[in-house]
Amino acid sequence: MSERVLVADDDSETVSMITRLLEADRLSVSTADNGASALLQIGSPRPDLVLLDAAMPVMDGLQTIDVLRSRGGTAEIPVTLLVDVADDANISRG
């Protein structure tokens, strides 16, 4: 069984690139274009890792992390926050 990764980013090119890289390593990838959509996809089976863009519409990555950490079933899922190099505010918050 392959490990599952959920990628949430509103930039379709970024999602496509990350998906190709992860699938080349034989990981199972699901995608979402915002944090709210990502939360709807986290269930059974839950992802082994979540990659979240810091700046997304509807619900950004930091808000999504807050929700994940507040839920008993998702609090322990590892999360990597994807942040623009020039985005000092989100880098500090993340």
Q: Give the total of domains.
A: 1
Uncertain stretches of 5 or more adjacent residues = none
In terms of DSSP E residues, the strand content is 15-25%
Class based on secondary structure composition and strand pairing? alpha/beta
Describe the structure.
By secondary structure, the protein is α/β, with parallel strands linked by helices. The protein has helices spanning 12-24, 35-41, 61-70, 88-93; strands at residues 4-8, 28-32, 49-53, 79-82. It has four helices and four strands. The protein has a four-stranded parallel sheet with strand order 2-1-3-4, sandwiched between helices. Helices cover 38% and strands 20% of the residues. It has a single domain, classed as Response regulator (Rossmann fold, 3-Layer(aba) Sandwich), CATH 3.40.50. The longest helix has 13 residues, at 12-24. Helix 2 packs parallel to helix 3.
